[in-house]
Amino acid sequence: MNSSNFNEWLNLIFRWIHVLAGVMWIGHLWFFNFVNGQVAKTYDDLVKASQDVAKDEMDAVKTAENKFDAAVRAVPDDATLTQAAASLRDDAANVQAAVSDLQTATKC
Asked: Where are the domains of the chain?
């Protein structure tokens, strides 16, 4: 009789554990379908926005490099080193600033 009573209690405990596990399972499914779905959409939008910012930064670097290349080609062949350095200093600073901005944006 004592063994039968123990088995009934054990059966009751396992049934309630099974019910509780089912409730947790359904709650888990609801969470991932409704709550996490909204988070994933927001994350995708954030990734797209960051890709757009990175593309803009890369375009700025390419534009600065192209301007620098044009400035190098515009330096006369008979210019001294001091004259050439003076004429390229501003364009080199623009390239360095664009690269620095890109590095700052990628650290975020």
From this structure: 2-107
